[in-house]
């Protein structure tokens, strides 16, 4: 099974998982009772997360039983692959009955240098009727569910070359110091782009740079628990010919804390001086 076929099969599982999570979101609930704290990671997650991850694990392992991100040890050999199945990306949005949340899955491969490289990504936003998928070497596509039926299309970033004409999105952390960095950067940019958005989650922000909705996206201090959403979005962005890097221009280090910036490419020279 090649990567493109594998991406299609995984996308069907992710879509089904998203439908189940959407059904749970539509049930009457108290968002305070639905929120829990992962003490080891210091992040909120929902009561649906465990069921969602277990469902995806079982179905995806039936397609191809690679190890999962959490199970794979540090001694990984070149050529090995493993799944990275995320909890709901945009947990607060989900708990508050907002539509901007996603279900994500990526596949990593260890290259000849022992570096972990995401090579397949699926990002599904059930409420918005959007699915993005990509596999290394095959490009990226967006699937939209509309009143006129399902529409599949190849995606690519915008060609906007200046901040003045751009739409830029940013993300914020749960932690005060990290949030201040994001807000200070947005404040420094104020009045330069045509608009600055703050919606999230990170996986969807990356996809919206990939399809040209946004010209750039930045967020400081993305953590190890953000890997599922970022890695899935990274494959889609890169296969669409967008750019993803750290604020200093270096490569993303998976599993570490990263100050992330995604862009269409041409806008980066003007944007980079604000990323400090």
From TrEMBL:
Say which species the protein is native to.
Answer: Bifidobacterium saimiriisciurei
Tell me the SUPFAM superfamilies matching this sequence.
Carbohydrate phosphatase
Q: Which InterPro entries match?
A: Inositol_monophosphatase-like (IPR000760)
Which residues fall in a coiled-coil region? none
Task: Output the Pfam families linked to this UniProt entry.
Answer: Inositol_P (PF00459)
Protein's name in the database: Inositol monophosphatase family protein
Top-rank taxon, per record: Bacteria
């Amino acid at each position: 099974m090649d990567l493109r076929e594998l991406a299609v099969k995984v996308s069907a599982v992710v879509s089904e998982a998203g439908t189940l999570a959407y059904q749970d979101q539509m049930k009457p609930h108290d968002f305070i009772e639905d929120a829990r704290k992962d003490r080891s990671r210091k992040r909120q997650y929902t009561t649906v997360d465990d069921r969602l991850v277990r469902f995806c694990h079982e179905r995806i392992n039936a397609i191809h039983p690679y190890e999962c991100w959490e199970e794979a040890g540090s001694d990984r050999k070149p050529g090995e692959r493993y799944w990275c199945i995320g909890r709901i990306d945009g947990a607060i949005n989900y708990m508050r009955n907002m539509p901007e949340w996603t279900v994500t899955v990526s596949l990593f491969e260890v290259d000849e240098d022992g570096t972990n490289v995401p090579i397949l990504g699926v990002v599904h936003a059930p409420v918005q009727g959007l699915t993005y998928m990509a596999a290394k070497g095959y490009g990226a596509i967006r699937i939209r569910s509309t009143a006129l039926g399902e529409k599949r299309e190849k995606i690519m970033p915008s060609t906007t070359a200046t901040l003045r004409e751009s739409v830029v999105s940013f993300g914020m952390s749960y932690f005060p110091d990290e949030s201040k960095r994001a807000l200070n950067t947005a404040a420094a940019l104020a009045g330069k782009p045509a608009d600055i958005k703050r919606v999230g989650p990170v996986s969807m922000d990356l996809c919206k740079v990939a399809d040209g909705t946004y010209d750039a996206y930045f967020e400081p201090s993305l953590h190890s628990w953000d890997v599922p959403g970022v890695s899935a979005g990274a494959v889609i962005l890169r296969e669409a010919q967008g750019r993803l890097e750290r604020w200093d221009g270096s490569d993303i280090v998976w599993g570490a804390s990263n100050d992330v910036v995604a862009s269409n490419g041409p806008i980066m020279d003007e944007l980079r001086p604000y990323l400090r």
